[in-house]
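Sanity check

After download, print the first record. It should look like this:
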Amino acid sequence: MRLLNKLNGRRIAAVLIKEFRQIFRDRVTLAMIVGMPIMQLILFGYAINLNLRHLPTAIVDEAGTSGSRQLLMDMLATQIINPVVYAESPQQLIDMLRRGEISVGVVVPQDFERRLDANQEVAQVLVDGSDTVLQSAASQLAQMPIVQGARAAVVDNNLQSSIPLPSARIDVVSFYNPQRVSAINIVPGLIGIILTMTMVMFTSVAIVRERERGNMELLITTPISAAELMIGKLLPYGLIGLVQTSLILVLGLLLFNVPIRGSAVDVYLATILLILANLSMGILISTRAQSQFQSMQMTFFVFLPSVLLSGFMFPFDGMPKAAQWLAEILPLTHFLRLIRGIMLRGAGLLEMWPDMLALLGFILLMMTLAILRFRKRLD
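Expected structure tokens:
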């Protein structure tokens, strides 16, 4: 009670007004207050969709009959698959699946009509099983009703009944993760998530901290150039990122049996590309942030869309086109395609050159903008 009696409403109101004025003057904090609810509402309500449709698909129709074409039309009518290419052979389809160019492949054999009459397997659906959600979506094709062959009639005690033979079916074959072990898909993605969070935050905070202490201005007065200073600041964090990657790979193998089907060299080359992309983004953030708290706020603005839109938590193919275009700007999106392709499908880094070039372009753009803003701020 004594404490309550000593409280002064006018002084409390003065502090309250002062805090509100400070919040409204800090545009980054104000953007967090207004922008974060809007961003999360749009991302969770609009961009994230677990009901996958229009999966990029390659088709091999070795039969080429009216019946096989009708089957393919029925499969397309489900809207689960979207044919992006017609392959010439099943092997070409498998190679495209390994490179990540498609998510699903459909093969109709030459003896389609015979299989249909005999109520056997009439088609195979090959799916990239490294993503368990894709497996579940593609497995719906196996539930399609197919025109059945002859039925056997059995007459017993003057009563006629029809006993259906086993019906024609579509088989779904899962590659790379047939057991649907979620850790096999998650662990490679965790490399990108951890590097995105730590590299961007560490770099932006470290440089802002140097500026707050006055050390950066002292370095600028030396003959060292802005580019040399940035490279010297970034190299230690790049090495830290490689150590983190090695730790995740070892623990993933020991604890979850996550395979590395491709080249370990390609794994580290792809990781270096992501590290450079994140470090250059962190430097650019540091040229805009006024304090360490602001740099962490701005890092969160980058980190949240990266986690939700990159394909780590939710399937990329389930997002609307606008969200997919936004995701293509994020380096984590391209890294996840690279690391999962190398580790889970055994693809080579050069085979996935579009995503590699996208990361290189992002690094070049971010570093150029960071160097320009760095010189402008600290001349």
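If your output differs, re-run the checksum step. Summary of this record's structure: The beta strands are 55-61, 81-86, 104-108, 121-128, 152-156, 159-163, 169-175.
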